[in-house]
From TrEMBL, chain A:
Residues 67-283 form the ABC transmembrane type-1 domain. It comes from the Bacteria. The keyword Transport applies. The keyword Transmembrane helix applies. This is sn-glycerol-3-phosphate transport system permease protein UgpA. PANTHER family: BLL4140 PROTEIN (PTHR43227), SN-GLYCEROL-3-PHOSPHATE TRANSPORT SYSTEM PERMEASE PROTEIN UGPA (PTHR43227:SF9). The complex is composed of two ATP-binding proteins (UgpC), two transmembrane proteins (UgpA and UgpE) and a solute-binding protein (UgpB). It is a multi-pass membrane protein. Keywords: Cell inner membrane, Cell membrane, Membrane, Transmembrane, Transmembrane helix, Transport. The lineage of its organism: Bacteria, Pseudomonadati, Pseudomonadota, Gammaproteobacteria, Lysobacterales. Its main location: membrane. The chain crosses the membrane at residues 12-30, 67-93, 114-139, 159-180, 214-233, 267-287. It is found in: Cell inner membrane; Cell membrane. It comes from Dyella acidisoli. InterPro entries: MetI-like (IPR000515), MetI-like_sf (IPR035906), UgpAE/MalFG_permease (IPR050809).
Automatic annotation (TrEMBL), chain B:
This is ABC transporter ATP-binding protein. InterPro entries: AAA+_ATPase, ABC_transporter-like_ATP-bd, ABC_transporter-like_CS, ABC_transpr_MalK/UgpC-like, Mo/tungstate-bd_C_term_dom, NA-bd_OB-fold, P-loop_NTPase, Transp-assoc_OB_typ2. It comes from the Bacteria. It holds the Pfam family TOBE_2. Residues 6-236 form the ABC transporter domain. Keywords: ATP-binding, Nucleotide-binding, Transport. It comes from Dyella acidisoli.
Length: 295, 359
């Protein structure tokens, strides 16, 4: 009897896996290790000298007020953008589920934005939200000073939150539509018989039943908002005005590549990695607990 | 609580190419327990879902309590329903499952608790109120589903094969309980099933559906003793009625290789007919009876099912005696005249007896 294909050579699997392995090592593990190394050393701006300083870099960052300011900015940015993207995606998914007749069309339309790169979207939204042209420009002529994201920290923050949520909504939407679809129709029928209209069914039955998936997308969004929001910030606000949108991921870039403080920014990267690890750990624990409850 | 009469008129439903029902008319009387019975695919569940408003009919009207509800959404029809797989909300406790409809109906907490308590008392759920559905056994879930349906005291109670997921013993207990509940509640009840035993034991009235049409509607005993067609004869009863082809001349029907029978049936132009007889009506040792060969015996303790052949036709008989039988033995079967149903061989419909025609 012949089962599926089998490779006999001992090295064949490694050879076949090599391209992927090389990519990961070159662009993920190597920089991480390099960052780890740098975070314990004081590096010269152009890398020609290096002194071991132990916790020196970490101590410097942890004493720096701008680190905590950036941490708080990150928290605000993450909380707002995650809430916004999950909420909007949930509403869209609920509406698509309600009107199944053209659901397929809308499902496809709503998934498309997922294919747009963050920086491209950042540029588009920057133009769209420009205070001098377009809709916002018009509103500014009606009420001078109404929209000034380059001056107002709150407005700048709301702009990048909106932009980042926009990039996350398609993914959340796909997951939530699939989740809603997987609810057996009898529950909805039973709720309808019990006297619940579409909105009540959504709030009382559908949303509680997709809680695991809501938690999942929120966690994915949270991690993404910490690590993957660089493109949006860089294209739209560059961390400004006055550090109002200077989230950690952007501060690392600014300190390292503009301030040329390679060691400090490496230490920051490690701290950021620790934060993401913590979030992931929480996620794992929660999923584990939920899986056990369902079993 | 009182019920409401339901009228279904000219109901048609198609799924793509397949026609489930065509121009169906059914009435459900106030406070009556009606069992809608039929083989799978006969449209009985569709009928129930159309009445509940969960599915839209292509044609026809549904009125409940003399109000046309054809376009009314399910939440406004005043029906309660028990689903085959119970459909208990998994994230709510038993208390909340039962109380959900009451909450939506705008009842205050005190009244809600009272009604939940009543339903729990009636169904023996008092100790389970704080559990989640996943912590319940199949029978307990079934009770909660029924509790949820009766707590709101709707005028119409709909059951969609609610007992089919239970084991035999539990099913029997629930049957008794449902009958008791109905007598206490008095709502118009429609109970869909493919199990003729449930129909016989539960129903005030049975509606037997076949291919989206009413094959026969009446009391369980009417369907049992006076089946309108050979389909009804073959569907009701365990084992069902024997239906034999026979040759018809004058007052007599001749069963091939079996013998002649006097039938209360004359004036027919046809020469072939069907003879129906219940297994328990057949006498096994009748003088000058129909000649049959014994094939096999199933002893069920309380009675024996005797498999015999008359010529090439298989016949089942039920025997309560103790006489030993040998396979291969020749028997002389007696068919009591008043137990014989005669069916038209072409249409399968029962022919009226001479006595009935004259009366």
């Amino acid at each position: 009897m012949k089962s599926s294909a089998r490779f006999h050579g001992r090295w064949t699997p490694f050879v076949l896996g090599l391209p992927q392995l090389m990519l990961i090592v070159l662009f993920f593990y190597w920089p991480t290790l390099k960052g780890w190394w740098w975070s314990w050393h004081l590096e010269c701006p152009f890398g020609h000298c290096s002194t071991f300083v132990g916790f020196g870099n970490y101590a410097r960052e942890l004493k720096d007020g701008s680190f905590y300011a950036s941490l708080l900015t990150t928290a605000v940015f993450s909380a707002l953008s995650v809430s916004l993207s999950v909420l909007v995606a949930l509403l869209l998914a609920g509406m698509v589920e309600l009107h199944q007749r053209s659901g397929k069309l809308f499902r496809n339309l709503l998934i498309w934005p997922y294919a747009v790169a963050g920086s491209v979207l950042g540029v588009i939204l920057k133009v769209a939200a420009s205070p001098s042209i377009g809709l916002m420009g018009y509103l500014n002529t009606l009420w001078p000073g109404f929209w000034q994201p380059h001056l107002s920290g709150v407005q700048a923050m709301s702009m990048v939150v909106f932009a980042f949520a926009w990039t996350q909504i398609p993914f959340d939407f796909i997951v939530l539509v699939a989740a809603l679809r997987s609810i057996p129709t009898d529950y909805m029928a039973a709720a309808a018989i019990d006297g619940a209209g579409p909105l009540r069914r959504f709030i009382d039955i559908q949303v509680p039943m997709i809680r695991p998936q809501l938690f999942f997308v929120a966690m994915i969004n949270l991690i993404d908002s910490i690590t993957n929001s660089f493109a949006i910030i860089d294209t739209m606000t560059q961390g400004g005005p006055g550090g109002a949108t200077d989230i950690l991921a952007y501060k690392i870039y600014r300190d390292g590549f503009i301030g040329l403080d390679l060691s400090g920014s490496s230490a920051l990267s490690m701290l950021l990695m620790l934060l993401v690890l913590a979030v992931s750990a929480v996620q794992f624990v929660m999923f584990e607990r939920q899986a056990r409850r369902e079993a | 609580m009182s019920g409401a009469a339901i009228q279904v008129r000219g109901l048609s439903k198609r799924y793509g190419e397949r026609t489930v029902m065509e121009q169906l008319d059914i009435d459900f009387a106030t406070g009556q327990f009606t069992v809608v019975l039929g083989p799978s695919g006969c449209g009985k569940s569709t009928l129930l879902r159309v009445i509940a408003g969960l599915e839209e009919a292509d044609q026809g009207t549904v009125s409940i309590g003399d109000v046309d509800m054809t376009r009314t959404p399910p939440q406004s029809r005043g029906c309660a329903m028990v689903f085959q797989n119970y459909a208990l909300y998994p994230h709510m406790s038993v208390r909340d499952n039962i109380g959900y409809a009451l909450k939506l109906a705008g009842l205050d907490r005190v009244e809600r608790e009272r009604r939940i308590g009543e339903a729990a008392e009636l169904l023996g759920l008092r100790d389970l109120l704080d559990r989640k559905p996943t912590q319940l056994s199949g029978g307990q879930r079934q009770r909660v589903a029924i509790g949820r349906a009766i707590a709101r005291r709707q005028r119409v109670l709909l059951f969609d094969e609610p007992l089919s997921n239970l084991d035999a013993k539990l099913r029997h207990d629930m049957r008794m309980e449902l009958r008791r509940l109905h007598n206490e509640i008095g709502a118009t009840t429609i109970f869909v099933t493919h199990d003729q035993m449930e129909a016989m034991t539960l129903a005030d009235r049975v509606v037997l559906l076949n291919k989206g049409q009413v094959e026969q509607a009446g009391t369980p005993m009417a369907l049992y003793h006076q089946p309108r067609t050979t389909f009804v004869a073959g569907f009701i009863g365990t084992p069902p009625m024997n239906v034999l082809t026979a040759h018809h001349e004058g007052d007599y029907a001749t069963i091939e290789d079996g013998g002649r029978l006097h039938v209360d049936q004359r004036a027919s132009q046809r020469t072939s007919m069907m003879i129906g007889i219940r297994p328990e009506a057949i006498a096994l040792d009748a003088p000058n009876g129909i000649i049959a060969t014994l094939d096999a015996i199933e002893d069920l303790g309380s009675h024996r099912v005797i498999y015999v052949r008359i010529g090439r036709q298989r016949v089942l008989a039920i025997d309560h005696g103790r006489r030993p039988f040998q396979p291969g033995e020749t028997l002389s079967l007696g068919f009591p005249p008043d137990a014989i149903c005669c069916f038209d061989a072409a249409t399968g419909e029962r022919m009226a007896r001479v006595a009935e025609v004259q009366a």
